[in-house]
Amino acid sequence: MIDVMSQSRPGIGPRYRSDRKEYGMSDLTKHPLVAGVVGLADRHGPMTRRRLPVPRRWTDLFAPLAVVSFLLVLVSGVVLAFWFEPSMRQVVYTGDYGPLRGVTMSEAYASTVRISMEVPGGLLVRQVHHWASLVFIAALSAHLLRVFLAGAFRGHRRVGWLLLLGLLVLGIVEAYLGHSLPDDMQSGTGLRVTEGYLLAAPVVGTWLSWLVFGDEFPGDQIISRLNAVHVWVLPALIVGLAAVWLLLAYRRWRAADAADAADDPAGDPLPRWAARMGGLGLLIAGGIVAMAAAVQVNPVWLWGPFDASQAPAGSRPPWYLGFLDGAVRLMPPWEVDVFGYTLTLSVVVPVMVLPGVVLATLALYPWFEQWATGDRRDPDVLDRPRDMPVRTALVAAFVAFYLVLWIAGASDVVATLLHVPLEPLVRFLQAAVVVAPPLAFWATKRILLGLRLRDLEELRHGHATGIVVVSPEGGFSELHRPLTPREAERRVPHGAALVPAGAGAPADEHGVANPHYRADRRRALASRFYFADLPGNRPVSGDVQVKEHA
């Protein structure tokens, strides 16, 4: 820059350089910090020439929605921490909210009411914090559902699937702890229910309750303990898991970029990508803030402070835990005695066994599907829901099971709104939780098989135009339009090429038993469960089936 100035304006450059020497000013371009930044930019300079993927479908928005909402949770939580008092010390409220003035309450509840009624903008920040946490859980759940339906958990993506599942579990726990911090009647009732669940744990229930509450319920330490976990422990774990997931995604992107020397025409250069993603983040944040400003959520001043001797009518857990409460309400009141200990199955099964089975099934499913189907395709090649009808039908069955339990979690509210007796409604939901998942599985599978048959028919004969012509012989036929290459590509099934159809003989021609016969037979049964009904499959040997493509 100095040389250019000296050439364009003679006399200025040399005098400037002499002044620098005279006053002892060093060249800033030689500063170690500047040199380090320049070196870092030179090292990652090719980033500006690469193209990065941007959301192009509405389902691509789930991940950005989860990221932006979590950032809003962090920012609003930091702001709220300046005014919230995580203490159960009893005080008399003397604030601006008249209906509660003179009422004895904990400092936690009093500070929550003060934030809502007295701190400028405090209610908006509280609502943003609450709505952002709800949006984070919903967006992450939808993203997991999209990943599952597309089969984006295969191969090396299985670790990413486990990380996303762990993020969802930690997010739910984090949101529930934050929901319990205000010490209002709703959250206190939820803690009371949680204490009952802990006490129902076999053998160690009493110790677990003491470990959490520190004394007889409600004690005087639970809010401070929940606040420490909510503010420090769980956010650090969530950020750590998210960082690992992003690192794995970055490594996959670098590997794909190294394998393909040409830029991806479907992506954007880094500056444009940053501008688009920044604008998208601002839109999402603005939408959440607008929702927080317009839609009221968790008005704690209406519930009043928690009183262990009372319980509000119509109380229900947050929506992301409603299925657990519904499972407890639908479980029959069964108890068994084991070695002198009474197991309350009506609590142990829905609260401890059911979540464990669901999480273990979701975590291990990628390995099970790969074992059953032998699918070793490139995990970056995603499936349409109709390409794997059984997998999609399993999702439909799970959603039906979840929705029935979720409705049962508010069965008393539903009975009141619909003006129906509560007991018949509970009986109906108990039957539905058993009948609805198989029906949803069967109906979804048949619909997807029909869609695959239609795709194969269009691949063979083209797209039906609806124009019917009459032949000279008097026959009727419909004209078909040939598919374009893009339409044909979208209709070609992307399923696995080979499907195990048999376990082989239990022994060879010499009478030597096959040591893997039982395992192969189980695998063959599982593979037929996935592929037996797919159109285009026909047996060609005793060992494999070949999938026909039109």
Tell me, what's the shape? globular
Indicate the proportion of strand residues. Answer: 5-15%
Helix share bin: 55-70%
Terminal CA distance: 66 Å
Provide the succession of SSEs. HHHEHEEHHHHHHEHHHEEHHHHEEHEHEE
Rg of Cα set: 31 Å
Low-confidence stretches: 1-25, 538-550
Most strands sheet: 3 strands, antiparallel
* Order of strands in the sheet with most strands: 9-11-10
Helical run tally: 19
What is the oligomeric state here? single chain
Q: How many E-type strands?
A: 11
Find the structural class using helix and strand composition: mainly alpha
On the 0 to 100 scale, the average pLDDT is 85
GO molecular function: oxidoreductase activity; quinol-cytochrome-c reductase activity
EC number: 7.1.1.8
Catalytic activity: a quinol + 2 Fe(III)-[cytochrome c](out) = a quinone + 2 Fe(II)-[cytochrome c](out) + 2 H(+)(out)
Organism: Jiangella rhizosphaerae
Can you describe this structure?
There is one protein chain. The protein has 550 residues and is mainly α. It contains 19 helices and 11 strands. Helix 8 (185-199) runs antiparallel to helix 9 and helix 13 packs across helix 14 (345-373). 25% of the residues are buried. It catalyses: a quinol + 2 Fe(III)-[cytochrome c](out) = a quinone + 2 Fe(II)-[cytochrome c](out) + 2 H(+)(out).
Topology of helices and strands:
Layout: H1 2-8, H2 12-23, H3 32-43, E1 51-52, H4 62-81, E2 90-92, E3 104-106, H5 107-117, H6 122-149, H7 158-180, H8 185-199, H9 205-213, H10 222-259, E4 268-269, H11 270-294, H12 300-303, H13 322-330, E5 335-338, E6 341-344, H14 345-373, H15 389-408, H16 411-418, H17 422-461, E7 463-470, E8 476-481, H18 485-491, E9 498-500, H19 517-531, E10 537-539, E11 544-547
Helix pairs in contact: 1-2, 4-6, 4-11, 5-6, 6-7, 6-11, 7-10, 7-14, 8-9, 13-14, 13-15, 15-17
Keywords: Membrane, Transmembrane, Transmembrane helix
Protein name: Cytochrome bc1 complex cytochrome b subunit
Transmembrane segments: 61-84, 131-153, 159-177, 229-248, 280-302, 338-368, 389-408, 428-444
